[in-house]
Amino acid sequence: MQPREFLDELIERYPVLEPVKEDIWNVYKLMEECYAGGGKVLIAGNGGSSADAEHIVGELMKGFKKTRSVTEDFAERLRKADGERAEELIQKLQGGLPAISLSSHPALCTAYLNDVDGNLITAQQVYGYGKEGDVLLGISTSGNAKNVMYAVAVAKAKGMKVAALTGNNGGKLGKAADVAVIVPEPETYRIQEFHLPIYHALCLMLEERFF
After folding, report:
1. Rounded CA separation 126/154 (Å)
2. Which residue ranges of the chain lie beneath pLDDT 50?
3. Residue ranges of the domains in the chain?
4. Cα 67–27–11 angle (5° rounding)?
5. CA distance 211 to 49
6. How many Cα neighbours within 13 Å face the side chain of 161?
7. Which residue from 184, 201, 175 is spatially nearest to 12, judged by alpha carbons?
8. Looking at residue 162, what is its pLDDT?
9. Residue 133 zone, left/alpha/beta (φ > 0; ψ -120 to 50; rest)
10. How close are the terminal C-alpha atoms of the chain, in Å?
11. HSE-CB of 59 using CA atoms within 13 angstroms
């Protein structure tokens, strides 16, 4: 399948998302450009959106529907690096699209919360990890999460692009992002219900493009 076909299939299954179909495509293109240029995706969210950030990393950093075998060139490098372990590594390693969930570092997060300011934890992570060409994906059902907005400011100062998954009227995040998917629902749990198939489609599209 081509990336567009995964998007078409998503809309067939969830017709309510038709108004944001091109926005989903534009988020895909932003992430595709990032990965094509050797960048990475940083993902920020709170609560259920934090769980979504972790879920997205799980789909991007290993095989989703494809095996993503290592290249022949890398296989040869493994054989030279460690002949004893090379064949098992060649068999089991899977290609990854670099992605980091910014809620995955409890020691850093609690230290920054205790020592500095909890609202700026994700901003600090973006400042430390981010570089020009990377993408910050902010997930906020209201679009008004303070910590995500601080992270957006740092990402822009770093020369990164900002993508958003949000809902209702998009909030501040929807306005600040380079590309935003604003799910046409007002209720938090309903917005989250649609975020999952959207990011699954994005991950399938990216896997198809790069593997």
Report:
1. 7
2. none
3. 3-61+96-210, 70-95
4. 80
5. 27
6. 21
7. 201
8. 98
9. left
10. 12
11. 20
By CB neighbour count within 10 A (0-12 exposed, 13-18 middle, 19+ buried), where does 167 fall?
buried
pLDDT at 1: 86
Q: Which two tokens stand for residue 14?
A: 């969830």
Note the pLDDT tens digit of each residue in 132-152: 999 999 999 999 999 999 999
Tokens representing 109 are 């997060």
Q: Which residue has the tokens 């990164």?
A: 160
3-state secondary structure the chain: CCHHHHHHHHHHHCHHHHHHHHHHHHHHHHHHHHHHCCCCEEEEECCHHHHHHHHHHHHHCCCCCCCCCCCHHHHHHHHHHCCCCHHHHHHHCCCCCCEEECCCCHHHHHHHHHHCCHHHHHHHHHHHHCCCCCEEEEECCCCCCHHHHHHHHHHHHCCCEEEEEEECCCHHHHHHCCEEEEECCCCHHHHHHHHHHHHHHHHHHHHHHHC
Contacts from 180-183 at CB under 8 Å and sequence distance 24+? 180/23, 181/20, 181/23, 181/24, 181/27, 182/20, 182/23, 182/143, 183/17, 183/20
Q: What is the third-level CATH fold of 3-61+96-210?
A: Rossmann fold (3.40.50)
List b or e across 11-40, with b for residues whose CB sees 16 or more CB atoms inside 10 angstroms: beeeeebeebeebbbbbbebbbebbeeebb
User: According to the model, what pLDDT value does residue 154 have?
Assistant: 98
